[in-house]
Design a protein that fits this description.
The chain has 14 helices and 18 strands. By secondary structure, the protein is α+β, with helices and mostly antiparallel strands. The chain has 2 domains: 304 residues, Bira Bifunctional Protein, Domain 2 (BirA Bifunctional Protein, domain 2), CATH 3.30.930.10; 79 residues, 2-Layer Sandwich (Enolase-like, domain 1). A 6-stranded mixed β-sheet has the order 12-13-8-4-3-15, sandwiched between helices. Strands 14-16-17-18 form a 4-stranded antiparallel β-sheet. A 3-stranded mixed β-sheet has the order 6-5-7, with no helix packed on it. α2 packs across α10. The radius of gyration is 25 Å and the shape is elongated.
Length: 397
């Protein structure tokens, strides 16, 4: 497998750097010799900014940990100024499912299957739909100031790389998806816009395991939810369009096109100066390199962030009433959940025996305010067997 250093070196022969535009990414007082980044940087801070376009840099993550990469994305968004430099962050992850900030994990992901497979489900800070990541998927994040935010321009950089370097005819549709062939989606988009800074990120299906992707994204579509729903689409791997393409080659191609895109139309001397001031930076998203990143990562990996940020939803399941309570009786029970907590428990069946209805309502009242888990329906059935003082406790499991 081609190393990230080789990817950087083969693209325009631009140097790898630990410093961008003369600014230490890691903060003052950090010993760069201990970071493992190689190369040098050109300080262009004293140059006449009217002679050159906005500087650009490409950061390539050396981690495949989804929590670390998302944490770095958020860290950079909050701590970096993009007034003088736009940045593209390129990253890959081990298998995982990433949902949008306003989505429901129970609807979007096959949680039981993913848990058994040891595949994490992660909520990101941007909106949009759910995506499956693995080593055959490439992620690109474009950072700018809010006033320079332009997702169409970003996506055209990728389309240009696909067309010119791999002969793949690609275009951007009205949803800002990248499409090839007969309306096959190879890239989806999401964004986060703040008062001063903004980022737009997208996925690229290069050689993703589509069978695993299909299994991973089979959530419970019967849940009634106010959350943002993913929109199904026909998807295709870029490798199916050109067998010569790889993630490593695509990193090189997109990075080069991104750095070249701001040098068009300027004079040769300015272009040379610009090329010297831009390049690739290999980053290791850890707290040692970026102080405060570990706190962001801990938040993104917490149970509360994934579950307790979920918009209101209602899930209905049949519950078999124990024989000691009623013979051959099954009742549909609807549980309403808001931000991870049980908000209400209601009977969704008709003509339920009054005694059974009273028992369910009594137990449901005791469960209000508790943390929701799918085991709540088994908990309801178990509580029906208990004497009155025990079945009304907040937790009996």
């Amino acid at each position: 497998m081609m190393s990230l250093r080789n990817i950087a070196n083969m693209s325009l022969n631009i140097p790898l750097r630990a410093v961008v535009g003369g600014t230490n990414l890691l903060g003052s007082g950090t010993n760069l010799s201990n970071t493992g980044i190689v190369g040098c940087a050109t300080n262009v801070g004293t140059q006449d900014s009217s002679r050159i376009p906005f500087n650009r840099g490409v950061f390539i993550s050396q981690s495949t940990n989804i929590y670390s990469n998302l944490a770095f994305e958020d860290w950079l968004y909050k701590n970096w100024s993009f007034e003088k430099r736009n940045v593209m962050f390129i990253w890959q992850n081990s298998p995982c499912v990433v949902i949008g900030r306003h989505q429901n994990p129970y609807v979007e992901a096959n949680l039981q299957y993913l848990e058994s497979a040891g595949v994490p489900v992660v909520r990101r800070n941007s909106g949009g739909g759910a995506v499956y990541h693995d080593e055959g998927n490439l992620n690109c994040t474009f950072f700018t100031t809010r006033d320079r935010y332009n997702r169409k321009e970003n996506l055209e950089v990728i389309c240009q790389a696909l067309q010119e370097d791999f002969g793949i005819q690609a275009h951007v549709n009205h949803r800002d998806d990248i499409i090839i062939g007969q309306d096959f989606k190879v890239s989806g988009t999401a964004a986060k816009l703040g008062r001063q800074s903004a980022y737009h990120h997208c996925t690229l299906l290069v050689r993703t395991n589509k069978q695993q992707m299909k299994l991973a994204l089979q959530g419970d579509k019967n849940i009634q939810s106010k959350a943002t729903a993913s929109i199904p689409a026909l998807v295709m791997n870029l490798h199916d369009a050109n067998e010569d393409i790889s993630v490593q080659k695509l990193i090189s191609s997109i990075g080069r096109k991104y750095l070249e895109s701001s040098t068009k139309g300027i004079d040769a001397s300015s272009q040379q100066m610009y090329q010297l001031s831009n390049g690739y930076t290999l980053i290791n998203p850890t707290d040692d390199w970026f102080p405060g990143l570990a706190k962001v990562e801990a938040e993104l990996s917490s149970y509360s962030w994934l579950h307790n940020k979920t918009p209101r939803f209602t899930i209905t399941r049949p519950v078999t009433v124990p024989e000691c309570v009623a013979h051959n009786t099954t009742v549909n029970i609807a549980v309403q959940v808001y931000h991870g907590k049980v908000e209400d428990v209601k009977i969704a069946s008709q003509d339920v025996c009054p005694d059974v209805a009273d028992l369910i309502n009594e137990i449901g009242g005791a469960l209000k305010g508790s943390q929701y888990t799918p085991a709540i329906f088994n908990d309801l059935a178990s509580r029906m067997r208990l004497p009155q003082p025990l079945r009304n406790q907040r937790s009996v499991m």
